[in-house]
Write a structure and sequence with these properties.
The chain has 166 residues and is mainly α. The chain has one domain (9-137). The protein has eight helices and no strands. Keywords: Membrane, Transmembrane, Transmembrane helix.
Length: 166
């Protein structure tokens, strides 16, 4: 426990999330599923993992990363949280976070022609259940996933960062 207490919030987040991924992906691998289904599962799991990583939102919102796919994911989630404003349902923000990976894998399914979008929902569920459970039991992860996005009236700010070419 002494080592665990010395770890940073980000390190604890990585350890818990990757242990969760190993267990859940191991279970999904035991099921008779094809490769595309496993990719759909991993897409949803990593999507939620990226949205919840402490400090990542601030890093991807700089001018240097403003057009990256990860910045698009963060902005899309922010605007979905604003557009679908359901605060009275428990775990509403978890359900809203699951919309964008489902839409993305549905698009992949329509273009590719095979796969099971249900594995996307399973990936979202696996991440969110462990995240919410750990968040309720401890205070490892900063902002609560149970609370709705703060500052709903303002979009994520892209700070004016000047690059130096040294």
């Amino acid at each position: 426990m002494k080592v665990w207490n010395k770890l940073s919030v980000l390190s604890k987040y990585y350890i818990i999330s990757f242990a969760n991924l190993a267990v859940c992906f191991g279970i999904v691998s035991l099921i008779d599923s094809n490769f595309v289904d496993q990719i759909f599962f991993l897409t949803a799991f990593v999507w939620h993992f990226a949205l919840q990583t402490p400090g990542l939102r601030e890093k991807v919102m700089t001018n240097h990363h403003k057009l990256s796919f990860l910045a698009v994911i963060v902005r899309l989630n922010h605007y979905l949280q604003i557009f679908i404003n359901i605060k009275r349902l428990p775990y509403a923000s978890s359900f809203i976070r699951a919309i964008s990976p489902v839409l993305f894998t549905l698009l992949l399914f329509l273009l590719g022609g095979h796969g099971n979008v249900l594995f996307t929902l399973i990936g979202s569920f696996c991440f969110e259940v462990v995240y919410v459970y750990v968040k309720k039991k401890t205070d490892f992860f900063g902002v609560s996933p149970l609370a709705h996005t703060s500052g709903l009236n303002t979009p994520p700010v892209i700070p004016n960062v000047e690059k130096t070419h040294e």
